Amino acid sequence: MRVLHGPVNVGNQPWVLSRNERALGVSSDLVVKHGTWLHYPADRYLSESTNVVLSRWDNLKCAYFGLTAPLHYDVLHYYFGRSYLGQPGAPLTRHFLDLRLARRLGRTIFMTLQGCDVRQSGLNSGRNAITMCHVGQCQVAATCRASIDRDRRELIDNILPLCNRVFALNPDLINDVPNAHFLPYASVDVESFQPIWPRTDGPMRILHAPSDESIKGSRFILEAIERLKTRWDIELILVKKLPYEEALKRYASADLVIDQLLAGWYGGFAVEMMAMGKPVACYIRKSDLAHVPEAMRRALPLLNVSIPTLEADLEALLMRRREWNEWGRRSREFVLTWHHPRRIANAMVRAYRDPAAPFQLDLATEEATRCAA
Fold first, then answer.
1. Interval 150-173: pLDDT, tens
2. Please, are residues 206 and 222 in contact by the beta-carbon 8 Å criterion?
3. pLDDT at position 137, please?
4. Quick check: 75 and 108 in contact, CB under 8 A?
5. Protein fold of 2-186+341-354
6. Torsions phi, psi of 44, nearest 5?
7. pTM above 0.70, yes or no
8. Which helix (H) or strand (E) holds 226?
9. CB contact at 8 A, 266 and 338
């Protein structure tokens, strides 16, 4: 079986998943149209540019690869609501000629949705009191309402039904795409992280690492921490735009991590931190949990905090510092069970072979017992 992942590498999910598919004996490649400033790896970059707007020649190369890929691969696993054709501003129907060709040729087609590729800004804002989609919170919310939401609706109505399976990494997306199946992050080699448990004495080192401060709710976090500093011995570690290896050193020094406050779910960064054995606080939107497997819901170790009560929520965590070590251990056990890329790859390969079969992680294997130990 030959599997192609692409055309983008958002959050490193396709790379880690494809490597673990290879470890299971599957011929699995990641080919992307272009790289990004994050320098995530791929087997092949069709353009040397890191700009989403490509040259005419680069677009022709991407189109050629996309239209010939169904001749070389049995499974095409697309990401972020994209295929190899099209560019910003082009009609959406042109973007998916390669996907349509793959379907006509009888290939298996998967799509993994990752957030703003499909999230309906207007609907999300109307549904949720706390969300990054409110106008004035996200910088592009007004543009989403004016035009991008319309493209997302076309993707949902006309393109996603062509796929054999659709996955969503964030449970809120399933409100907009009811036929999507929730998929845990497989973006981190969780076993490669050595646990560094929280300290129980000295200054409380609280870490926050925003990739986008407006989306993560960083303003609310920083304001709450400054007020808490007047009563508690807190050392804030703010990590922004550092090389990955340098950032990891900062992460290792943390006792408590605050992830994000607006999405209603945690990100791939939180998975890394939990793999390190760190307790992680973030906002979990309870209304979206119906889309998450029941066993995963029961095991969630995330410390739920909310913007309206953030200072009090964080202070309650500070008062329970002696429990942080145990919280960190629960966090690591959770990601070794629910975010282990080999386990997720196993389930994905089974789905490639039979897209109609239920998608389930095997939690009762000998490997699961070994990993959680």
1. 999 999 999 999 999 999 999 999
2. no
3. 87
4. yes
5. Rossmann fold (3.40.50)
6. -155, 135
7. yes
8. helix 218-229
9. no
